[in-house]
């Protein structure tokens, strides 16, 4: 992979606008990372009052800030720079909802920090949420715009649906039930889904019946089959209930993890993303945390929906994020539980190599999303 380590803008200019012809002909997902400390980061983490302590790496002690300064450069065209004012105008009188897990929540935080930088009056923006509610909303009253996150890590109903108390020893889904979640977000103008990490175990327990019903039938189902069942339920709901002339639908591909440093050449099995300040240089690198079979299930579900007249666009963040082993919080985040002496002596043991620092990689995901939104 050709990565330019320099402190000046790349020769190819950053475009403010995107034309439909360029977007439709260009593969935004094939490209390289270019150091661009003139234009990035797109916002300051300490200036965004909506920043999550789980993702505020600089606030929690990370000193090297180059992870904030990389721009994604497609090989054959330009990715438009995120224009927050233009995005807010597009969202005027509209509702945008991110639906999924904590990686999608991180992308939502990125989006509202990007928008926050263009709203200069504090009273013109606020968060609206109810304790223990799955839904949290960023409101921009001047635009009558709402950008929301809805917690549903497996999309369908599960025993992990509580927004706080969801770390349970056994994962159970009701693979045919989505209405409890979907009725909250179906009327949105833009829907951005993700669901991947919570499926990553050999078997998921599937419940036929309700969680309250003692006579429900439980069955262990393999990961891929249970994922297929859930996406079928999701697809069927969208086909019947979504307003095709109003709602844009997007699905974020898998966000890679960097939990085994041996995958990119380290000698010790005990290492992960802790201490990593450079990205992976090998073009086309794929780690073992990414499952192509799951990606194919997503693609098949979306292709099937297309034959039924419903368009869902995949934002393929996987390959570009694979390179970014430097972009995770590692130890630089709020620790919700006190660390033990053993953990403190081995920082890799409590490093977060799943989520992403902000500003950082999810801002580029949102630039990709922005490009797709403005295609039409």
From TrEMBL:
Gene Ontology cellular component terms for the protein in this record: Golgi apparatus; membrane
Record-linked Pfam families: PC-Esterase, PMR5N
A GO molecular function held by the record: O-acetyltransferase activity
Protein name (Swiss-Prot/TrEMBL): Uncharacterized protein
Membrane topology: Single-pass membrane protein
Ranges of residues in domain Trichome birefringence-like C-terminal: 79-371
Alphabetic keyword roster: Membrane, Signal-anchor, Transmembrane, Transmembrane helix
Annotated family: Belongs to the PC-esterase family. TBL subfamily.
């Amino acid at each position: 992979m050709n990565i330019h380590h320099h402190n000046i803008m790349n020769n190819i200019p950053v475009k403010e606008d995107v034309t439909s012809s360029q977007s439709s002909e260009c593969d935004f997902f094939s490209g390289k990372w270019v150091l661009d400390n003139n234009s990035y980061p797109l916002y300051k983490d300490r200036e965004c009052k909506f920043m999550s302590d789980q993702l505020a790496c600089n606030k929690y002690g990370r000193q090297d800030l180059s992870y904030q300064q990389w721009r994604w450069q497609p090989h054959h065209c330009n990715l438009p720079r995120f224009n927050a004012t233009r995005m807010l105008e597009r969202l005027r009188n509209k509702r945008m909802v991110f639906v999924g897990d904590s990686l999608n929540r991180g992308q939502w935080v990125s989006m509202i920090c990007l928008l926050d930088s263009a709203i200069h009056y504090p009273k013109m923006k606020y968060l609206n949420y109810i304790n223990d509610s799955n839904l949290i909303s960023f409101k921009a009253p001047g635009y009558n715009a709402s950008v929301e996150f809805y917690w549903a890590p497996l999309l369908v109903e599960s025993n992990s649906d509580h927004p706080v108390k969801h770390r349970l020893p056994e994962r159970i889904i009701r693979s045919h039930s989505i209405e409890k979640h979907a009725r909250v977000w179906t009327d949105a103008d833009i829907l951005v889904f993700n669901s991947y990490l919570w499926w990553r175990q050999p078997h998921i327990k599937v419940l036929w019946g309700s969680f309250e019903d003692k006579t429900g039938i439980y069955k262990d189902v393999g990961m891929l089959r249970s994922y297929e069942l859930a996406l079928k339920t999701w697809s069927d709901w969208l086909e019947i209930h979504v307003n095709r002339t109003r709602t844009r639908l997007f699905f974020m591909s898998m966000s890679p993890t960097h939990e085994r440093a041996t995958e990119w050449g380290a000698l010790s099995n005990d290492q992960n993303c802790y201490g990593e300040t450079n990205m992976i240089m090998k073009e086309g690198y794929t780690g073992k945390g990414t499952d192509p079979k799951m990606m194919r299930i997503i693609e098949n579900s979306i292709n099937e929906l297309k034959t039924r007249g419903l368009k869902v666009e995949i934002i393929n963040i996987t390959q570009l994020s694979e390179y970014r082993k430097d972009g995770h919080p590692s130890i630089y985040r709020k620790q919700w539980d006190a660390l033990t002496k053993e953990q403190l002596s081995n920082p890799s043991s409590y490093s977060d190599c799943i989520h992403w620092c902000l500003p950082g990689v999810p801002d580029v995901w949102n630039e990709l999303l922005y490009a797709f939104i403005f295609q039409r």
